[in-house]
Each structure stands twice: as C-alpha cells, then as structure tokens.
Amino acid sequence: MSKRKNQVNHEDSDSDSEDTAEGLSTHALADLVLSQPDIGTTIKTDGEESSPYAFLSVLNIGVHNDNVSIKSLVEYILAKSKGDNAFHESLSTVLRDPQCQVGLVLCERLINMPVPVIPPMYRMLVDELRDAVEENEPFNFTHLIFVSRVYKLTPEEEDAMTYRPTTTRESETNDRSPDGVYPFHPEDEEIRKFASHHLIFPYSNAQPRNAESFGLDTAGRLMLVPAAQLTELARVLGDVFQPPGNV
Fold first, then answer.
1. Which of 37, 90, 105, 165 is least surrounded by CB atoms within 10 angstroms?
2. The whole model's pTM is what?
3. pLDDT tens-digit profile of 39-69?
C-alpha cells in the first residue's frame, strides 16, 4: 500500500467536459482525489508510477462544491435519490445545511483484488481523518455518501450459475439474493447495514435489455451513512473479511 503523490495531470483532463456515459466529470474528480495525498490509500505493486489495483479516499462535498465534478455528481445523486422520497429529503437537507459536513467516499478495486485488502484501507482512513481534524483540516464529517454498483440476475440466470463453477466474485457472495440484486463488492453489504438510507437506482443511459442481451444488467447504489459510524464500520469489515487462515 502507498500514499498517493500530489501529482495532478491537467493535460489529460478537461474539467468542463462530461466524460462518462452518465454525464459525470471523472477527470476533474480524479484531480481532486490526487490533490489531497494525505487522505486515502492506493494499492500498487510496481512502484509509485504504476497503475493502481485499488484505492479509497473521501472528498468534502461542501469544500469542493464549486468544482464541476462535484456539482455534476451532487445533481446526479439528488436526481437518483428521488426514487425514495425519505432518502431524497434527508439527502437534500444534509447537503444544504451549513452545520452538516458531507463526505463523498470513493472506493474501487480491480476484480482480482480480494476483499480482505479493503478493511486495512478503511482503518487507515479512520486514522487519517482523525489526524486531519486535529490539524483543523475540513474532514470533520457528519455524513458520508457511498456510491457503488450492483448487478441483477434473473431467476434463470441464477439457476444457470448453480450449475457451473463460481467465479471469485460469485464465491464472495454465494447466497441467493431475494430480489436478484448482488453487489460487485461484498463489503457494500456490510456498509449498507450502517446506512440510514439506501437505494438501488437505474443508470440514466442504460440500454434496454432482452433475452439476447450480453453481459450483466448493472445498476447504481447510493448509501447515506452517519460519519460517527465509520470507526465501527471499519472494525466490522475487518471482522467479516479476514484473510484466509486468520479466521
């Protein structure tokens, strides 16, 4: 594991453009993450200049609310949360309340990175946020927003899976879901247990699917978690996802 170097490559980014299918400015968002090297962790295997295999970070939405990436993402999240009136009302309230400090948690890893790499990253994030608050930096959060992904299986697809060898992802989440919805990352199910609100939403530009459609039927997931729960969340992740041989 390594801390990110404070290097921002503006030559490769266009912060005025919408650079994803969902209309989000991910290049500008990446620049924000890179601009705070003391918060968050990246896992690399071939030195500082190599590609990351996993990363975890958090951004203060209020501090960066003038950034094009945060603006577009907040608008997107608020629009998607309308699928749950209570969630939308709570989210709207905390985002406009000056007494609330809302953090956007960003976490991703390659599919071949096992879930036990995640708990240490969260434990380090807890320590980093505590140190940052002691230095009067703007990381004293009241709420945390997690944006993640899920995939959906039809009953026929679930039946087919039971008759072939499981992949790493499937073996991590091998129990059938009552609604056919599964997380790309198993740790999301533990995070959901700490959420005051939770929502699965369709992607804006998802293509219509039929019996001949190729690939997974994917959707987005939003979770709003009280920031005071982060320490306990990190502990639970460590208990649930221990490395083989440590159980």
1. 165
2. 0.84
3. 999 998 887 778 889 999 999 999 999 999 9
What element of type H or E holds 217?
strand 217-226
CA distances from 43 to 103, 131, 164 (A): 21, 21, 32
The answer to whether 171 and 162 have CB atoms below 8 angstroms apart is no
